[in-house]
Design a protein that fits this description.
The chain is mainly α. Helices cover about 55% and strands about 10% of the residues. It is elongated.
């Protein structure tokens, strides 16, 4: 025989806290939460597990935000590097680069004479 506990919950829909909770409960995916019991049990467990973690580590939320922020920065830098590394490498090899509007690069095989751009007085 299963060990079951029964409780009743009232939602006063005149109060925003309860109205919001009720609206969430009515809009959930029934395949993920087939009953209110499963939904409430998962929500209560998640709430108290997170609360326990935060009490044990007070800076958990700010650390999570910092990690997300750092990840966003790294992703942006990586994307930009992937776009411009070919341009940089081609510049090192002395080839000219043609940038298309789609941010892809093409390396032109013809050599460009840039000797008129070099200040030969500086060279000595």
């Amino acid at each position: 025989m299963p060990n079951l506990k029964n409780t009743n919950i009232r939602f006063n829909l005149d109060k925003p806290l309860f109205k919001s909770a009720w609206d969430y409960m009515q809009s959930v995916d029934k395949s993920e939460f087939p009953s209110h019991s499963i939904l409430i049990a998962k929500a209560v467990n998640e709430f108290f597990e997170r609360r326990t973690k935060i009490k044990a580590e007070p800076f958990l939320e700010s650390r999570e935000r910092e990690e997300k922020f750092t990840g966003d920065i790294i992703g942006t830098v990586k994307t930009e590097l992937e776009k411009y590394i070919p341009v940089y490498l081609a510049g090192l090899s002395g080839r000219s680069i043609v940038l298309s509007t789609e941010n892809s690069t093409e390396i032109a095989n013809d050599e460009v004479d840039n000797s008129d751009l070099i200040d030969m007085d500086f060279a000595g």
